[in-house]
Write a structure and sequence with these properties.
Structural class: mainly beta
Helix content: under 10%
Oligomer: single chain
Radius of gyration: 18 Å
Strand content: 35-45%
Shape: elongated
Largest sheet: 7 strands, mixed
Number of helices: 1
Length: 173
């Protein structure tokens, strides 16, 4: 469930049980989730196990204005600019691929000029592959990512960094 942040920066969520991930939605433009910590432990991608009736304090949700951005274009093998494709960007660490609601794997379609843009990836090392078509959400399937990895471009994103990629279209396998 969702919760509202109060004026003093605190929030309260009730009725949680099982493993839950914290995500920050509806942040102002130019802000992204940086980390979630419980009692000082990093739990952004692993989540927190809640037991019925448990009261959990010391949850810290950290946001940052140092957003990451990846943008670029895609060309066909013969060099012609394309306007219809899907870019799949995914961590070079396969452990990030199967995480629920993974911040480390995403897909993007081009705008009317044929350029793509992805924001708010965590800093790290990534692969990017341009394919003719991938059904929305299917880009999070580890088998597909493993196949795409062989022909993908590799790049690194630092905290608050932007990268521009010029990718070649890869045929989906």
């Amino acid at each position: 469930g969702g919760g509202q942040v109060k004026a003093d920066g605190t929030f309260e969520l009730k009725g949680l049980s099982g493993t839950r991930l914290f995500r920050a939605f509806n942040l102002p433009n130019g802000w992204m989730l940086k980390a979630v910590r419980v009692g000082g432990d990093e739990v952004t991608d692993t989540g927190v196990e809640f037991k019925p009736g448990q009261h959990l304090a010391n949850v810290e949700v950290v946001v940052t204005s140092r957003v990451t951005e990846v943008n670029g274009s895609v060309t066909a093998a013969e060099g012609a600019a394309l306007k219809d494709y899907t870019v799949v960007i995914f961590s070079d660490d396969p452990q990030h691929w199967a995480l629920p609601m993974s911040r480390w794997v995403t897909g993007a379609r081009p705008d009317q000029e044929g350029r793509f843009q992805v924001r708010n990836l965590p800093p790290g090392s990534y692969y990017a592959a341009a394919v003719d078509y991938v059904e929305m959400g299917a880009w999070s399937e580890p088998d597909l990512l493993e196949r795409l990895k062989t022909s993908a471009s590799r790049f690194t994103l630092g905290d608050g960094e932007s990268q521009t990629l010029n990718l070649k279209l890869t045929l989906t396998q």
